[in-house]
Design goal:
Structural class of chain A: alpha/beta
CATH class of chain B: Mainly Alpha
Radius of gyration of chain B: 21 Å
Structural class of chain B: mainly alpha
Number of helices of chain A: 18
Strand order of the largest sheet of chain B: 1-4
Number of strands of chain B: 4
Oligomer: heterodimer
Shape of chain B: globular
CATH class of the largest domain in chain A: Alpha Beta
Number of strands of chain A: 24
Number of domains of chain B: 1
Largest interface: A-B, 31 and 20 residues
CATH architecture of chain B: Orthogonal Bundle
CATH topology of the largest domain in chain A: Rossmann fold
Number of helices of chain B: 14
CATH topology of chain B: ABC transporter involved in vitamin B12 uptake, BtuC
Amino acid sequence: MTNNVVIRIRDVKKYFGATKALDGVDLDICSNEVHAIVGSNGAGKSTLMKTLAGEYVPDDGQFYYLDEEITGFSPLEIQQKGIQVVHQVLNIVESMSILENILLANPPIKKGILDWKTGRKKVRETLDFIGIDFDLGKSAGSLSISEQQFVILARALIHNPKILVLDEPTSRIGLEETRKLFQVINKLKQNGTTTIYISHRMEEIYQICDKISVFRDGRCIDTRETEQLPKDKLVTMMLGKKLDVFFPKNEMEVGNEVLRIDKLKYRDIVDDVSFSVRRGEIVSIVGAVGAGKTEIINMIFGILKSDGGEIFIDNKPINKNHSSYKAIKMELALIPENRALQGMVEKYPVKYNLTAINLKGISKFNLINSEKEEVLAKDLNTKLSVIPNDINYLISQLSGGNQQKVVIGKWLADSYKVYLLDEVTAGVDIGAKSEIYELLGELAIKGAGIVLATGDIEEAIGLSDKIIILYKGKVVKEVDPKNTSKDEILSYIMGSEKSA
Amino acid sequence: MKYYLTSWEVKKVHKRNFDKFIRNYGLPLGLLALVLIIQIIFNKVPLFSLFNINNILLETVSIALTALGLSYIMMSGEGDLSFAGMFSLLTVVFATFANNTNSFIISYIIVSVIAVSVNLFIALLVTRLNFSSFIISIAIMFMANGVEKAFHQQTTLIQNPSILSFSRIEFGLPLVVWLMFIIYLVSYFVINKTKYGFSLRIVGENKNAAIEAGINSNRIKISAYIIAGLLIALASAVESTRVGAIYEQGKYYMLPVFAACFLGSSMFVPGRINIIGTLVGALFLGVLEKFMNMISVESYIVSIVQGIVLIVSVGLVAFKNRAKIVQVKL
């Protein structure tokens, strides 16, 4: 097949108030290719994707599909043209069955009645193509997040799309599932489907994509073949500056033990997990999705009640009625996995989000001193270099990376003994990532113990002093990042190598 | 290799099946048990005689139809309280026009037009201007009560005997009872077997999923409100002809209609309003009310008992969903 252009975007603009989300985008997507779109948070990727999905109507510019100009922007019209978008947010209808969820957009109808029998056949074909099996009658809400991702993928593929847009499809799934997804993308390519792939994960892009388009400040600044664009050059293009140090070198002497957990249990998810963290030490917990990382973090912070085992802070056991309130009193800090649900109050401005747990310092007789509040929030905001540097912005208006900085920032007004971080760089662009790493390095130098639950193995190797590998709720191996490789860790995560 | 269940796993599967059975059929079984208990306590009262069944069903029709309308609105993801005030107003309007025109059809058309326009008004505010349906409906409820009081302070009696006889036409069961069952059957079919019903449920469950699926959620919501308007109009016509003497009828309907919907939502998928559940819930409340009438308890006790039923049904849903609440926390 020849590579002819299927989507031609010319000078497309989209403004939200004063913010130029898309500021004249020119982009060509050819048939039969996997085309990556990369850029920092807020570079315009999501806006472009929502435009492609028909949810946003561009303010200006032309949009051609197979040399035909698209004028009607509604999800239905776009889908009928053969463009399917898999959003980052998984919009599952929890109470409905998997079958109904996959056939959401147009269920087959026979004589005015929903024809689930035909639907079932169609769904089976699509699932076979993906190479996954589901009990179709089960409710979709009972599935794990990574299974839901495949339900959503099937929902898009059942229409046999000409163009498939994937927005951060791997941010919530494990390595095994990522491999499966890539197989599907390759198969689609053979069948003549073009895939537009949006991701922050560099390795994935180099693994699967033929072309890369770099977005910055609402513009597509360059499009190149993957082979002609080395990684460091790509990062420089994305950020508009050179990134020198990615992982800060931590030459600190580690101190006394600050946190120890002993034979921690939780239902059938966490099984006899023990490890310890010393002052100035960064300990990573790695494992597949569902290996029990989040549960361990939440038990230490008192959000989940453990079913056995003990937690020691400075060698003193935490009593049984542990709660998040007490955890903060004992100088534990949590940066949770689910930013929107646990980490921030979406409808509040940045300043309230920054001062929410520091109210003691800024209030007298339980009255909040708003001047002190402003000063504290401004201090933290500048220190974190949150963009925009305005504490009155709603946190929901910030990009993902900047939101995460604010979520971390609220713990910086005071010093804490232990910082518990759960997937702290998920959905965060590479620039903000390096800033967050720097921050963690600083905290460690100040003598805090840091527990980092992560699915990103590079991050674990680059950042930590000790890596604990979980497989199905059990610690299978503790490794020193200096004497290990990515492949070794991977094999433990997959459970293919048994612990000694 | 074949995989055999251990005895512990077998027990778990049995328990799961039992849980599922109770979830799906607990409510109708409870209804049956209630009827039996009543029968045993009041051995002499002929509850099961045909006259009584007809009577109980006849008294349930208005609750059931209004609750069905509310179910449509709730399935589309909105809430409503306006029906309590509207019910009072519509019955009075029906009675007044019945006395003036001596025509069932004209009176019925007039209440339908009023009910549909008010619901359309609410629906437009909710869909176009993003008003909270719950708050709007409270305002409408009180306004409807006010309008009702403005043009009549005492009981209105329907004089025309041929209009009054509408709810007494019988083919084995009263005509309106047949009508209720047919409407429920059609609704069940529409909601569960047609694309419209499928879209309605998607809109109610997850608005963003509906947008991604290209469903026009505003149009779906407006249609649910219109259907609810038609149903409450029919319910008020039935009520007027059945009672004959109209005075603030809606007052007695707010609680049972709500309770019927929520009780029904404890069936099948906990917390999801469904057609069969609403019917069983309405019958449950109808029987309960009849029972309390038979042992002649004060009307305030009836309200208290119905309130308890509502709390218990909401509690049932929360209890059945408890495993899920933990998940959300994660």
